[in-house]
Design goal:
The chain has 111 residues and is mainly alpha-helical. Helix content is 68%, strand content 0%.
Length: 111
């Protein structure tokens, strides 16, 4: 099996090298022009759009993690007391940073 694998690997490499060295016809001017009218774009297509999914995802994760850990924390809080309260406070403070970042980015403004 090892021999067959080595043979197939070297064969694929040889075919790729031969294929890359074959002469190619370059595109003529009409073939390189944009299709169905319109000129060449002034800017890259992604520059026109504001990608807001990052901040929405950050906000979703912040609220989802908060709710996911609140239920087990309520059970542990009964037995642990003030230590569990301090740990949940630190956890919520860290998540609040993400929520404040989303607020600063304008995630709560509906358009």
């Amino acid at each position: 099996m090892l021999t067959i694998g080595i043979i197939f690997g070297w064969t694929a490499l040889a075919v790729a090298i031969v294929w890359a060295t074959l002469p190619r016809a370059s595109a003529t001017a009409p073939q390189a022009a944009p299709f169905l009218g319109g000129g060449k774009p002034d800017a890259h297509a992604w520059q026109r759009y504001h990608f807001r999914a990052y901040s929405m995802t950050l906000l979703f994760v912040a609220f989802e993690m908060e709710m996911m850990f609140m239920y087990p924390w309520a059970v542990v809080f009964v037995s642990e007391g003030i230590k569990a309260l301090a740990e949940m406070g630190m956890f919520l403070a860290i998540l609040s940073v993400g929520i404040l970042y989303g607020w600063r980015e304008g995630i709560f403004r509906w358009q």
